[in-house]
Amino acid sequence: MTGQALAKVPQSEADRLGRDLTAVGALKAGNADGSIPAYEGGITTPPAGYTPGMHYPNPFAGDAPLFVINAANAEQYKARLTAGQLATLKLYPAHKMKVYQTRRSCSLPERVYEASRRNAATATMTEDQNGLNDALLGVPFPIPNSGVEAIWNHRLRYRGFKFRRFFGSAAVNRDGSFLMFKSQDEGIIHYSGPGLASIGDVADIRQLNNIAISYLNITTAPTRLAGSIILALDTINAKELPRQAWQYNPGTRRVLRAPELAYDNPLFNTDGLATTDQFDVYNGATDRYDFTLKPSEEKYIGYNAYEYVSKQHPYKELLSPNHLNGDLGRYELHRTWVVEAKLKDGARHVYGRRTFYIDEDSWNIAGADLYDVRGQLWRVQDDPIINYYDIPLCSSALEATYDLQSGRYVVFGLKNEEKMLNWNVQDIDPSKFTPDAIRRLGTN
Fold it and tell me: For the chain, which residues score pLDDT lower than 50?
């Protein structure tokens, strides 16, 4: 029997969800000066003219920026900037952050809200805090008591059930030239599947057979890497069964286990500019860090950044030297959960400390500051959020990691210039997520 670490909240606390708190645990009220408005449900219908499968039109295209933050005035706004944002602005004089009216646009299906309210009173972690019990579909810990609970909320936030994407990853040099990687990936988020059963009022997570997400990635460009296939099965209880991963090499036509697809090993298709556990800002096991939940802070984070996924902006326009094109970005003031991760004694990782800023309305990590083992700020993650309103769900528009030491950066999750992602795929066959299946796929 696996021990449990108490994490559920008293029913009196859980009853706040839907009252002064939203169903996922955000404060409904705005802030004192009104710069953050009250939550009113987010985007509930797609804008006129949208059809599923097309690039997402910007529902706030008529908004004008309130002001622009740059190296010259960054100190004026430092209280609402992350350490990484402030460092990036000062290091690159051409960099800027255009700040817009705050729109709390995030929305989720009603069944996710219902599951989140249920999870608040039932969900627990395993004794080592590296596994989950008695939660399904919704946010596991909408009223978190610890930093690791907040990280679990990010890892298992709602992103639909099955998805297929066509996207690019770009490693950008100091002069703005870049190496482009293109991929097709698809996956099943089993934790969010329809028809999952409960035992009474308790979600039976055991029916997932310890698999939270099945993920498949096929590289299509450049030619020297085309045909490489990654398969990963991300587990719920990592102590019981660590992440299972395999890689198909088109040169040898062999499938090999890939235990290196975890922690601080280099992330594929990033030219060594990001670690594997930086994909989706943070993924995988939580056993190498102590996570501390800090007081909530109001920060300027990338939000409603629909221009980043627009078909109107080719890669060459988006990817400028040192940083993404600031004219296309959109930042807003939002409350964030702040979680500090410190490397445990005796554990190994290239990042000795990480600070995560988690959007209160969606549980997406919107940005992170990454420090090396000497305590020096090394890399900065910027992960702007949009509402994929046809589902609806809220997730990153793209993911950028700035390496302050080399002056280079990498962006992954770039939307394909011709094809868009589909978060609501029905024809993905679970049987393809096996080593034998990817061997047949690669051979063919």
Answer: 1-4
Alpha carbon separation from 399 to 235, 327, 381 (Å, rounded) = 23, 17, 7
Give the model's pLDDT for residue 197.
55
Q: What residues have CB less than 8 Å from 181, skipping those under 6 apart?
A: 168, 169, 170, 171, 219, 221, 222, 225, 269, 270
Under 8 Å between Cβ of 106 and 395: no
To the nearest whole percent, how much of the chain has pLDDT over 70?
Answer: 96
Q: What DSSP string describes 7-41? A: -PPPHHHHTTBTTTB-TTS-BSS--TTSSSPPP--
Hey, what's the torsion of the CAs at 370, 155, 133, 240, to 10 degrees?
-70
pLDDT digits (tens, 9 = 90+) for 226-261: 999 999 999 999 999 999 999 999 999 999 999 999
| Nearest-angstrom CA–CA distance, 394 and 281 | 14
Dig out the tokens for 367 from the structure. 């940005």
